[in-house]
Fold Triokinase/FMN cyclase.
Amino acid sequence: VPKKLVTTVSGCADDALAGLVACNPGLRLLQGHRVVLRSDLPAIRGRVALLSGGGSGHEPAHAGYVGKGMLTGVVAGAVFASPSVGSILAAIRAVAQAGAAGILLIVKNYTGDRLNFGMALERARAEGADVRMVVVGDDCAFTTPGKAGRRGICGTVLIHKVAGALAEAGASLDEIEKKVMAAAKVMGTLGLSLSPCSIPGSKPSFQLAEDEMELGLGEERPLNVPLRGVLPADKAVETMLKHMTDPSNASHLSLTPGSSVVLVVNNLGGLSCLELGIVAGAAVRCLESRGICIARALVGSFMTALEMAGVSLTLMLVDEELLRLIDAKTTAMAWPNLLAGPATTRREEVPAPAEARKPQDESGIGTELLSLVTPPLCLSFPWEGAGMHPLSAGPGTARVQRVLERVCSTLLEMQDKLNELDRGAGDGDCGHTHARAAQAIREWMRSRPPPAAPAQLLSALADVLLEQMGGSSGVLYGLFLTAAARSLHGRSDPPAWADAMDAGIEAMQRSFPPGLSPGCQTNSHFSQLDSLFAAAQALHSLHSPGANPLEVLAAAVQSAEAAAEATRHMEAGAGRASYIRSSRLEQPDPGAVAVAAVLGAVLE
């Protein structure tokens, strides 16, 4: 049974409503019932009252839509269960006694909801109340007509909004009923699930294979229309919109070029906000390509199914009047407070500010890279002149390209390994971050010849990583390379590289938490320092007269590799690793491993 953060399984629906009311001064519970009402009930005197509801588990529906300009009250059932007739009748009586000029029940088309709300309506009418009921069915999943009709799902929230704006404006019960029924006929919704949900205390309601998505759902149960393979977001959205508007589909929504719609991109509960944004962008692009005007777009969690990973798309055809009702103000907590305006992927971008030209110093750092086909300086790599290194022949730029290509290939090959190592101490993305750096360097080399002068090269690489690598690692590498490039200014001797390494490490340390030093492993954000410091100590031998540069470099690589392996036994003192249950790791740190691999690739 999946874990749930509840106090008791039997009381979870009541506890959820109690928490909502406790945090919202505009809401009140109806004593003895699972009913939420507006706190300013006297304000509805002479106006039409709007009541809705259904099973719990669909939060923020339905209580999140109680407020001025939307619903007067809602009646909640247990999780995924229709509310009782007694509670519905109690809500009707409460608003009738407050002086409502008629009551409209907005009910989703499910058998239990229709039966319970319908029975309460008949009993209230027998008591003399002026009560009507509108049944909403917006599901576009059914390809053939069903006896029960289309189910009511997320589009019901738009009906709440339209009815609420009309009631707030003083419209009569007849007018609201008529306009709401018309709006419900030009609306459709379709859902897509990636995983099931589970009622507290129970197993998941259905199963999906790892390579399956399922099209079409009510609030908690798909229609068994599996999509083989997990589609990319744009293809999934295209499939959904095609099904929703296919004339051969009995429950389709007629949509023609030039139509104006309100789009709702609804999180079914377990989709990340990142994924939801991707889906929203894909939906806008797809509709625009079909000549549809997206007059408004609402993106968020409007009607969920507990923790189901999935999304639903709702479209409502709108004219100017409907749009005004959608835009009308409301105090309902779950309705998004957005600036009114259309959705489009064609918004003009804010121009990026022009980058100030860096003053050119003697080493050429900061010059325009496009002009650096031939480096202006003769700074050398420490192996040059030793007569031993395989890259000693050929133009400097070609040598640089070959070295960088080896570094990039190494990082890309290690991507999965670094991610796996990072899962023990971080968020499992160290490999992705370093692969992103490798791809950025490759793209940079394709766009222009890299400078062969070391100071210029390191400065340019720092810019690439700072711009493209991202995360803390990108900043740290950028700090290291920028300081190292500055140290190489005007020098061409092998000891310059040892000094450059020291300068880079010092720059990194200045950004670390106080008290952090080599050997205080911190996870892949800071642990590059351990391998770099070990290599720097070995490079100090370049200051010795007669030192063989290649032998010193080989020793530096070995020291870096040993330092990376030693992080296996260190206890994290800072960074993300220090927060996990056991900060003593049983595997080498991925950041230190990556640095050792880069140094090894340079020496090959």
